[in-house]
Write a structure and sequence with these properties.
Elements lengths: L5 H28 L8 H6 L3 E2 L6 E2 L2 H32 L2 H14 L4 H20 L7 H25 L3 H9 L4 H12 L1 H17 L2 H6 L17 H8 L8 H31 L5
Antiparallel strand pairs: 1-2
Length: 289
């Protein structure tokens, strides 16, 4: 083996190992999840709202779990994404160099905040506040979990969107200013559109972070497997269901296979978001004339 070929072979080996691990996880999910279809049809699983997997016969409807995951992800994204983008624009385009050097590391450090700490804050601070101010039975609900997930999403989206904005060539800004545009016109009509693919990727990464989060929703969402009709209703997303029930589930039981099938549904939803991201990005890509 020639010396110059070694780095390429090492990188290829590590990449292949990563792909193999991902394929193994996918195979394991399918192998352990699909046997649940012997107990219940696919239609009854995705449209049924009764989740009583330990009864005889088990009720394995996951609609309430799927709706819980989607609801908490959408609400947290609606709360977090606008704030994240304003933070990114401020750091990239408005803040001074000195302030940027302070704010950017702080934003990145917030991304490493353990989710269990946020869950704890949600239980001891936000839940009692919601209960006292909105006269509800419990502060552990959809809104509480969404607020906490928003705190997790903001540093991720804010940091990545800031990098996308900073990567826009300075010549574009200078050309805009030379044509008489104001700073806001330059940001909104030149810099932001130029960075849009990167910003979109950042937003979708944040959404997927919210979809896959476990600890926060386990601690703050209330844990009731119902379809929410109000912001103050408790929810039970797929992730918290898997985390809460897998440890006490007999291996090989319908309940065991149903939890793996829930993981498979979560993977499919995440994959759909990825494909949507690729489709939107391809639509916005400028084709050479």
């Amino acid at each position: 083996m020639k010396k110059e070929q070694a780095p390429g072979i090492i990188i290829m080996s590590i990449s292949s190992m990563g792909i193999f691990i991902i394929l193994f996880i996918l195979f394991f999910l399918i192998k352990e999840g699909l046997p649940v279809l012997k107990e219940a049809s696919l239609l009854s699983i995705v449209t049924g709202s009764d989740w009583y997997p330990t009864e005889t016969p088990p009720a394995l409807g996951m609609l309430s779990l799927i709706v819980g995951s989607v609801a908490v992800t959408i609400l947290s994204s609606l709360l977090a994404l606008p704030i994240s983008l304003f933070i990114a624009i401020f750091i990239s385009e408005i803040a001074s160099e000195k302030m940027r050097n302070i704010l950017k590391p702080i934003l990145e450090l917030l991304g490493f905040l353990p989710s269990i700490i946020l869950g704890f804050l949600g239980m001891v601070l936000i839940a009692p506040w919601l209960q006292a101010n909105f006269t509800i039975l419990s502060g552990l609900n959809l809104l509480n979990a969404s607020i906490l997930l928003g705190f997790l999403i903001i540093p991720i989206v804010g940091s990545l969107a800031e990098e996308a904005l900073s990567a826009v060539p300075l010549e574009l800004r200078n050309a805009s200013y030379a044509l008489g545009a104001t700073r806001w016109e330059t940001i909104s009509k030149v810099v932001f559109p130029a960075a849009l693919p990167g910003i979109l990727s950042a937003c979708l990464l944040g959404i997927m972070r919210g979809m896959g989060e476990t600890m926060v929703v386990l601690m703050a969402a209330g844990g009731a497997a119902i379809i929410p009709v109000s912001l103050f209703d408790p929810v039970r997303p797929l992730t918290s269901t898997i985390a809460a029930e897998m440890g006490e589930t007999p291996v090989g039981s319908p309940h065991y296979h149903a939890l793996f099938f829930a993981g498979l549904i979560l993977l499919i939803i995440t994959l759909a978001i990825n494909l949507l991201s690729s489709w939107i990005e391809s639509k916005r890509r400028v084709r050479p004339s």
